[in-house]
Amino acid sequence: LASRLRAEGGLGRYVVGIDFSGNPTVSGFVQFAEAFAAARAAGLHTVVHAAEVANDADTDAIIGFRPDRLGHALHLSAAHMAALEAAPIPIELCPTSNMKTLRLDSLAAHPTLRRWIEGGYPVSISTDDFGVFSTTASQRAQTSHRIPAAAELPASRLHAAGLRRARPR
């Protein structure tokens, strides 16, 4: 649908990509990989929510596909971490939703946030789902200084990183 809308022009010219998300316990990326490959071939950007739950086979398929960006990337094996560090795929970190879905007491308990930020990995601070998690990009920008490992960084650096990775083709 996204490829068709883009090809038709009109308002479709504003369709720049597709995103794979949803309940990771119900279905995995493999079922949609062919559609994502077709979208990429049509010039669309791809974002895939990855490793929201521990599922090595699904995470293998997602990293192998190499989307333009990953969402979350929380439950990663040592092999997945090494693969991403060797050939980075920018990650949309979603601290508010991760706090809620992982039932964290604080962001200091986040499984990957500190490592990605302190290691200089390409990340952006994102919001995930406004309707479910009641946070906006503006709120996230205002509170990014509360994120451990990001407190010493200018907030503009984290948010500019996200903008650089959002450019349409």
UniProtKB/TrEMBL annotation:
Its cofactor is Zn(2+). One of its GO terms (biological process) is adenosine catabolic process. Keywords: Hydrolase, Metal-binding, Nucleotide metabolism, Zinc. It catalyses: N(6)-methyl-AMP + H2O + H(+) = IMP + methylamine. GO terms for molecular function: adenosine deaminase activity; metal ion binding. Residues 15-152 form the Adenosine deaminase domain. Pfam families: A_deaminase. Belongs to the metallo-dependent hydrolases superfamily. Adenosine and AMP deaminases family. This is Adenosine deaminase domain-containing protein.
